[in-house]
Amino acid sequence: MQHIQSTGYNIYFNDDCYTYLQQLLQPGAYSTIFILSDENTSQHCLPTFLSMVATEIPMEIIEFDAGEVNKTIETCVQVWHALTDLGADRKSLVINVGGGVVTDLGGFAASTFKRGMDFINVPTSLLAMVDASVGGKTGVDLGALKNQVGVINNPIAVLVDSQFLETLPAEEMRSGLAEMLKHGLIADAGYWNSFLDLNDLSTTDLDALIHRSVQLKNEVVMQDPTEKNLRKILNFGHTIGHAVESYFLENPNKTTLLHGEAIAVGMILEAYFSAAYKLLTEGEYIEIKEVVLSIFPKVEFTADDITAIIELLIHDKKNESGKVQFVLLETIGSAVIDKLVENSLIIKAFEDYQN
């Protein structure tokens, strides 16, 4: 499968990942290799990955607890201490093997330790393959607020090996589909149509869909690496979705949602806004709602939940001058940025979602 060229690095797929690594990890290329993973990927993915990597460079493994709740500056401090204790220097290489929490946090730790070390992302979840590992966004959460602290800094490569998906539970696979659906909605109607019937999806089909999803994101990022304009369209579904995810993460009476589950809610609501403003047709909105709900179970919200979620919107990173900025769809396959939405319409969208 053809590699994808990004700004200053390449994204490799399947067998080409290990060909690249063998060429890179020659004696003397790096002083030490540090592999960062969480407890899940250490158990399910790391043995396979290590079996494919042969190098004389000394290698150390740093592991932290799994889950979004551990995507914090405190975990990052633990990683920095581990790097220090194990003798990391600026000629060391960090390889992040895991889902989006690992690639986000690991990229941030590597980007800031000794003012920057090379790092490679090896995403092992569908979500990380098509979204988190690509584009250079690194960082940690601040309390329940998503990705509030971080930097944009590219890896030297991203290695996407779809065999790791065999280790994922069904709900994690489904979570990754949310970002793939988003890429079709904002940039490629034909790609969106690929998801209208998932019943006969083969492994080959999935590889091709992953490749196209990465390609779509990369095309946007290359035009606007630091998210001044066009790259904002990648946040479709995320303004509401991140607030929903944060609220369910911090509320002890709620079951924590996976990222894709929260983004699925956000995409339906933000599609509703788009239809309300006469950008999307009613038929397009209904199609989006039906397709997303055919994949993701509906989430229940009380009136108090909705009020609290709206209050969280003020912390969204796209906001300017205290105003919440949304990405809306002008049709399936095309998006517009920096749109304001009244709270009354947000409440109506939640009501429509529940019906």
Automatic annotation (TrEMBL):
Entry-linked InterPro entries: Dehydroquinate_synthase, DHQ_synth_AroB, DHQ_synth_fam, DHQS/DOIS_N, DHQS_C
Superkingdom, natural source: Bacteria
Residues that span the membrane, as ranges: none
Cofactor (UniProt): NAD(+); Zn(2+); Co(2+)
MF GO annotations: 3-dehydroquinate synthase activity; metal ion binding; nucleotide binding
E.C. designation(s): 4.2.3.4
GO biological process, alphabetically ordered: aromatic amino acid family biosynthetic process; chorismate biosynthetic process
UniProt keyword terms in alphabetical order: Cobalt, Lyase, Metal-binding, NAD, Nucleotide-binding, Zinc
Residue ranges of every copy of the 3-dehydroquinate synthase C-terminal domain listed in the record: 176-319
3-dehydroquinate synthase N-terminal domain mapped to chain residues: 63-174
Signal peptide coordinates: none
One GO cellular component, as annotated: cytoplasm
Keyword presence, Nucleotide-binding: yes
Protein purpose: Catalyzes the conversion of 3-deoxy-D-arabino-heptulosonate 7-phosphate (DAHP) to dehydroquinate (DHQ).
Name of the protein in question: 3-dehydroquinate synthase
